[in-house]
Amino acid sequence: MAVTGLDSGLSVRVSQPGPIPLNAQFSCAPGEVLSLVGPSGSGKSTLLRAIAGLYQPQHGNIALGGKSWFDSSTGVNLTPQQRPAGLVFQSYALFPHLDAASNVRAAMEHLPPADRNARVRDLLAMVNLRGLEDRRPSELSGGQQQRVAVARALARDPQVLLLDEPFSAVDRATRQKLYIELAELRRMLRMPVILVTHDLDEAAMLADRMCILHHGETLQVGTPADVMSRPLSREIARLVDIKNVFEARVARHDHDRKLTYITWMGHVLESGYSPGFAADAPISWAIPVESVILHRRDRPSRGEHENPVGGTIVEFVVLGPNTTIGMRVDGGNDAILRMAVPTHVAHRNKLGPGEGISASLLSEAIHLM
Q1: What is the dihedral of CA 331, 334, 336, 337, to 10 degrees?
Q2: Among 8, 130, 248, 286, which is disulfide-ready with 125 (CB 3.0 to 4.6 Å)?
């Protein structure tokens, strides 16, 4: 059974100085998953509740398909019942005295009674709960309860689906199964899906785009790959957990070679062409750990000519098949450059604390902020 939504997307622009500071703006197209990501207290759940009509911000507008749900300038503020939104709470909020079928049926007051039972069966089958219709929440696992909550949200025939930390209450194995089921379900949902999570890996896996929030403010919106490798600021780099963020200065731009050179810790590094930064301007720069390439001790490679730096291992953490290494860069001010290598490579190169090593910084991966 295909579930169809609307032909236009969701747009949100809300602001207020307090008591919960908000300055957020984002949109979500039909069939798209947008993840709201940020630390605790960043306003993620408040924004979800504002979309659903459970919280009224002081200023701004919320619209779906061009129809206004909330507009502070005109006084429009539809009730939760008037907004075609399906909301899955973090705690699922199922009725404990009702079985799975009755929990889903409770959201079907808009349908004729004669049509409800068939719709309940279809929705529970869609979320892989066929045969469990008569079980109460206490008789269901955490993952099964989450599926009931999703089916109940869809029972309203929503035009947008809102998911508030939907996987936080289940174990890791169940979470992996639910990820797959959500990915399959979204192919049937031609509606915007807003996913609230504090888990960056979860957002990167499930979302088409991410909205990074901090203190209620939208800092950056983009694809997971773009946001996590090309943050707009040092603060965003910290929020998306980029390990290698440093200060430097712009040395010069080479228009012919499409390169920008920066000076850092006595090194001149080449990076992607960024002419928007003035010469000698102070900047922040970042590079993902996977773009710091360890030099082999037994066989140098041509790649070692690309932004080579040397130093001493001061952090060495073996995590199963992978090892993370922190190198204090020679001639620097205690800056630690971090990289990740397969554990067998670390052993083969006889690496450990106190050992001297060198590495290359891939120029295309150096991002200036």
Answers
A1: -20
A2: 130
Burial of 276 (0-12, 13-18, 19+ CB in 10 A): exposed
Q: Is the pLDDT of residue 324 over 70?
A: yes
Helix or strand run (H / E) with residue 60: strand 59-64
What number of CA atoms fall less than 13 Å from residue 160's CA on the CB side?
29
Q: Show the tokens assigned to 339.
A: 């990289």
**Token pair recorded at residue 28:** 């979500």
Which single residue is written with the structure tokens 């006889």? 350
Who's near 61: CB < 8 A, 6+ residues apart? 11, 13, 14, 68, 70, 71, 72, 73
pTM for the complete prediction? Answer: 0.82
Query: Cis (ω within 30 of 0) for the bond into 57?
Result: no
Neighbours of 222 (CB within 10 A): 16
Q: Which residue has the higher pLDDT, 126 or 32?
A: 32
- Choose among 210, 246, 241: nearest CA to 227: 210
Residue 189's contacts (CB-CB under 8 Å, 6 or more residues apart) are 3, 5, 31, 161
Type of residue at 277 = F
Q: What is the pLDDT of residue 5?
A: 43
